[in-house]
């Protein structure tokens, strides 16, 4: 028998934003430890790289095989493409395959907005807003889906988007308008007024002056991985409370953090990871921004893939 395959539409239909966020929260509450996640495996590919992301769990295990082609967006193609293989943990028998690109496009914003939601909930009462201004950097699929996820997770929020190519920004705005999500074109001049800043770009250099970020604002830098790539500058890192996906993964791949402080300094600081954040352990410093740094982790793929397998319509 051939393995069932979940195409992009099936993955998307089975994991709406509230469902995906809730599944990630539940996994962390039930004991998933980001510090035990398997390291991402890299290998060169023509014009880019291969990524393998294995993960194991009680009921399911799995591996995501991706290609990353940095030159693709300029050609109108996806930067990240791949497939996911879900495996039965008891027998190690393959159970299903699914579109790895769509899985990535869902689990990354779901993880980011889960983190943002809990960071906002930990804010001092005087710093909370019912209608936060959300500023998104990027105009690709991750920026588009971060806006969709933010609309679902942050009711009442107002949205603006910043991108290098005006035509892509307008296309994104039009796509979201057709879905009933109002977004305006923004610029770096909006940074001081933003309550939440989501960085979902392929930029390898900081997107804005970290000194412009408002006291109490939440910044999520999730568009890049690798110690030679950064979306935010050291000034923002040094003036912020910091939350990471996992401390080990951040030390391996979070270029937003390592230039600002050494690995030894981060080990001493011991920033909270997502499991601790969801458990309510974050105590925000009044008047400080909070930075969430994410690089993408295999356990998030596995949790989302299980949601798709158990609730989706397969071929």
From TrEMBL:
One GO cellular component term noted in the UniProt record for this chain: cytoplasm
Signal sequence interval, chain numbering: none
InterPro entries (alphabetical): NAD(P)-bd_dom_sf, ODC_Mu_crystall, ODC_N
Cross-referenced Pfam families: OCD_Mu_crystall
PANTHER family: KETIMINE REDUCTASE MU-CRYSTALLIN
Protein name: Ornithine cyclodeaminase
Originating species: Arthrobacter cupressi
